[in-house]
Write a structure and sequence with these properties.
212 residues, alpha+beta, BirA Bifunctional Protein, domain 2, five-stranded antiparallel β-sheet, three-stranded mixed β-sheet, 27% helix, globular
Length: 212
């Protein structure tokens, strides 16, 4: 799904969740090449001009999530939980740690020993970031979320300083694990439900222009 479409879908679902019109949602999708800059981001962490990004087929979006600059693209599993934390825990830190744990447990099922680095957000394998996290909380309802590198072309990270940190990135494929986005999604859904203590309904595929 094109990033702008996904952003609009999130905004619609956030409003509905804040109204109590829908239960919590978990969007799992894949984006074409795009770079996003969080509200606390620094433009110097974007290492290419607008013309260079356009020639490489990369879109650019300044957005309202936390965190700095990050890249999304094919082969990356992107997750956007739309959750009312009043029904879980009114604790943003605990929410971020729970997302990290969900990804850590998912990777363990594929034989990858991932973990945290004290003081940093995200999921890491031997000092290399395999999953980035950037969230927004409005009236206790979450949006934005995480990006897990499954078979991502890591060369696209050359255009940014990922999350403002001079640390390398990695992917499941680079670590020797060949897995499909569908397979990783299925595993992650199960761990998400367990970590957050919620019942996961059967996945729903929307129309092609809004495939989630």
């Amino acid at each position: 799904m094109e990033y702008g479409q996904a952003l609009e879908l999130q905004r619609e679902l956030v409003v509905e969740r804040q109204r109590g019109g829908i239960p919590d949602q978990l969007l799992l999708l894949e984006h074409p090449h795009v770079i996003t800059l969080g509200r606390n981001g620094r433009m110097e962490n974007l290492l290419a001009s607008g013309d260079a990004l356009a020639s490489a087929g990369i879109s650019f979006y300044p957005i309202d999530r936390g965190g700095d600059v990050t890249y999304h693209g094919p082969g990356q599993l992107v997750g956007y939980p739309i959750m009312d934390l009043r029904d879980w825990k009114r604790d943003v830190g605990a929410y971020v740690r729970a997302i990290e744990q969900t990804i850590i447990d998912t990777l363990a099922d594929f034989g990858i020993a991932a973990g945290r680095i004290p003081g940093l957000t995200g999921v890491w394998v031997d000092q290399r970031k395999i999953a980035a996290i950037g969230v927004r909380i409005g009236r206790w309802v979450t949006s934005h979320g995480f990006a897990l590198n499954v078979s991502t072309d890591l060369s696209y990270f050359q255009y940014i300083v990922p999350c403002g940190l001079a640390k390398p990135v990695t992917s499941m494929a680079q670590l020797g694990v060949r897995a499909s986005l569908a397979g990783v999604s299925e595993t992650l859904i199960a761990h998400f439900g367990r970590v957050f203590g919620c019942e996961m309904a059967a996945p729903v595929l929307a129309a092609p222009e809004r495939e989630i």
